[in-house]
Design brief:
5 strands, binds CO-5-methoxybenzimidazolylcobamide, five-stranded parallel β-sheet
Length: 211
């Protein structure tokens, strides 16, 4: 039987093959992609985060756990994508300039794909002008900005300023998120929306563009 606690434990231990196998078993047994992500993959990564915070884990262990988590995500991703029918809109997503954290951003991107959106992944350390180019070139409806560091949050404001300067601010909605980001910060910098997690990011974008 699918054991999501064992899956979380395998993420924590960085056991890539076990994560892939347990994820596949859960899929085969009909466990929903959302439960596998939330109760297995994200639950494991949350513990890794705590251990990193308490200096029980160091960077290599965190990277190994993240790689193991990705092995599970690789299996889940097509299932999330399959569930979408017509694209609801196009989202350009990236982690802002100076910030290399991509696990949460990738989750948000996957949830968008699963939610029926076309996703343009600008990856990490994305300078404001790259978001501007995306809006100018590919009919983007939503710019999704992720930041995990308090020191990179100001790059979200820089990005909004760059959109204003390029004259494209009114043609897109700007959605922001990431562990240190808040609704207050979104209000402060003039973002259109904030979402605390991957699932609500999709709901918020849908609300913003009326899809
Ligand atoms: Co980093 N790191 N890290 N790190 N790292 C944090 C973020 C930190 C909180 C750890 C700590 O000290 N407690 C801390 C930031 C402190 C702060 O600024 N407040 C920190 C630090 C300091 C650093 C370095 C500076 C460490 C150093 O070198 N001294 C360095 C910075 C590098 C850089 O970016 N320039 C660094 C490096 C790294 C690694 C490379 C080792 C690795 C990243 C690997 C990778 O991403 N490929 C790493 C990791 C893994 C973490 C922790 C442990 C885990 C982050 C994570 O992936 N969480 C993290 C500690 C923690 O969070 N407890 C930490 C799981 C992920 C699913 O959650 O990304 O929050 P999260 O995404 C969530 C929500 O936030 C939301 O949805 C997701 C899930 O539902 N969300 C959005 C995210 N983006 C969204 C966008 C949206 C909406 C929702 O709309 C657009």
């Amino acid at each position: 039987m699918a054991d999501l606690q064992a899956l979380a434990d395998s993420v924590i231990a960085g056991k890539r093959d076990d994560v892939a196998q347990l994820t596949q078993t859960a899929v085969d047994e009909g466990v929903s992609a959302e439960d596998i992500i939330n109760e297995g993959l994200i639950a494991g990564m949350a513990v890794v985060g705590e251990k990193f915070k308490n200096n029980e884990f160091y960077v290599p262990e965190v990277l190994i756990a993240a790689r193991a988590m990705h092995a599970g995500m690789d299996i889940i991703k097509p299932l999330l994508v399959e569930s979408g029918i017509e694209p609801k809109g196009t989202v350009a997503i990236g982690t802002v300039k100076g910030d290399l954290h991509d696990i949460g951003k990738n989750l948000v991107a996957m949830m968008f794909e699963g939610g029926g959106y076309e996703v343009v992944d600008l990856e990490v350390d994305v300078p404001p002008e790259k978001y501007v180019e995306a809006v100018q070139s590919s009919g983007v409806d939503v710019i999704a900005l992720s930041a995990l560091l308090t020191t990179t949050m100001p790059a979200m404001k820089d990005t909004i300023d760059a959109l204003v300067e390029a004259g494209v601010r009114d043609s897109v909605k700007v959605l922001i998120g990431g562990a240190p980001v808040t609704q207050n910060y979104a209000d402060e910098i003039g973002a259109d929306g904030y979402a605390p997690d991957a699932a609500s990011a999709v709901d918020k974008a849908t609300e913003l563009i009326g899809a």
